[in-house]
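pls design
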């Protein structure tokens, strides 16, 4: 538990720095500003968008092969 909390805290710092570097160097007319949560794998995992794969929709992937 404590090791997981340390990793989460480290990623909070890292993602803040990544967002800062990205936002300072971005072109405001072409790119939107990123939030640190979007670059943090611990925080963004809760907000992932997409379609969950299950037995009802797996056939859609089989058609791509």
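designed seq:
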């Amino acid at each position: 538990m404590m090791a997981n909390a340390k990793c989460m805290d480290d990623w909070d710092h890292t993602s803040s720095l990544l967002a800062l570097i990205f936002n300072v160097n971005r072109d405001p007319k072409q790119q939107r500003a990123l939030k640190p949560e979007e670059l943090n794998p611990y925080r963004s995992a809760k907000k992932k968008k997409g379609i969950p794969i299950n037995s009802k929709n797996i056939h859609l992937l089989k058609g791509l092969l």
